[in-house]
Amino acid sequence: MDAMELINFYLVPGIVVGSIYALGAVGITLVFAILRYAHLAHGDLATFGAFLALGVVTLGGVSPYVALPVAMAVTAAVAVGIDRTFYAYLRERPKIVTVMASLGVALMVRAVVQIVWGVDSQTYTRGIVRPENWFGIRIRDREIVTVLAMIALVVALQLFLKYSKWGKAMRAMSDNPDLALLSGVDNRKVVLLTWTIVGGLCAAAGVFLGLNYELKALMGWTMLLPMFAAAILGGVGRVEGAVLGGLIVGIAEEMSALFLPTEYKAATAFAILLLMLLVRPTGLLKGKVL
Amino acid sequence: MSDILDMRDVVGGYGEADILLGVTLRAAPSEIVVIVGPNGAGKSTAMKAIFGLLHVRGGTIRVDGADITGLEPNRIVEAGVCYVPQVNNVFREMTVHENLEMGAFLRSGDLSAAYDRVYALFPDLKERRKALAGNLSGGQRQMVAMGRALMLEPKLLLLDEPTAGLSPKYMEQIFRICRDVRDTGVTILLVEQHAKQALAFADRGYVLASGVNRHEGTGAELLADEDVAAMFLGG
Known about the structure:
heterodimer; A: ABC transporter involved in vitamin B12 uptake, BtuC; two-stranded antiparallel ribbon; 11 helices; 73% helix; B: alpha/beta; 10 strands
């Protein structure tokens, strides 16, 4: 096998799926950092966002790229609503209660998707898209858009966290919640903001997954493990770590097909997660210890 | 002039049991008042009562004439009281400058005067303004914590054992900074384990024991008191 084959069949798909994992993992790491629990409904929320975009595409007759911001905005509102309806009441309880509640929310969200859009696989656009040839490297337009959109969203998030007043408040809440409260930061506003961002990123992950593969009711759920592996690999609470982790998990999954039957692809993320927790539980970029 | 802090007969605790059984504390404008006492006397608890972190079941707490008894901590911040906890008192993953910025979170408008004032008090911090607070030494971290609290230009600054775990050199420096802060018109109430040194530097002191006032007076008076010496100063 030559280098071009390796790039075209393993590295490019790895970077694309890694970018999708990265979008999800950034949300997971933000929830971990600020709310301090594992959010198991993350995958199904991504599914919801993907199908919401499908609804916009079929009803409005627009391209999925136009549907993306709509899906992000609505999913952000739904995420805030879920927090208000379910998680807000559990804030004072041990965190494991919220983790379990989020599993329940995952099942509910999935059921809604199945009732509204059915259980069959669907796609945004019909027909086969042939990849463009860039000096021997074959990439589809949607793959370029996926990677660029991930980079744009993450850079925007980083700028917001670094320079804006409320971005700093989010970092302060993640760093030292008691001191943030003593400084007069309104916890409820930070939580609201966090879910808005997390919901939007979640929908983006779902839409790009649907765009590059297909839409299925279980698409998000199967993405949950790689997303968590990516967040922990990068270091919990580290946005740039989640991106790095997402790309590593994505590439590792695709590369594993070189040595293992493709059925074991999903096990790669699990292996990375186990190895990381054993060797370096703080992650590559030294995140919080859970 | 009226007292900045007027805390009378305060009774309260964290849960059901009362830890404070009637504590009275006063602080005049631009005064350094120190609370000393044996372990478990309720020193830090008295301070937390002022900042609204406690169930106050009796007595009143006034700051500059306004009743703040039972208010939420963020309302107490608005009333002009800032509190520096003993531990975990900086944002470790944020720069020194960002820590100060978080201190001024409730303020809007131009903050350059407030930054200048804090950096003038802590020249060390100005040099290290881009450093992460978590990478500083214990003494410098304490300065960041105090600087953060001073960004709101409080009337009353509460310091919970600011010299705990610091070397004698830093202890002297923190005390000297406290005097500088006082000279800018801020009243300081602090809790101290190092009773002897603290009484020597403070304007006035209170000795608490078992949740009640035991002694009060100027630092020199308390240091000269035999009962106080026998209680915990250890000669």
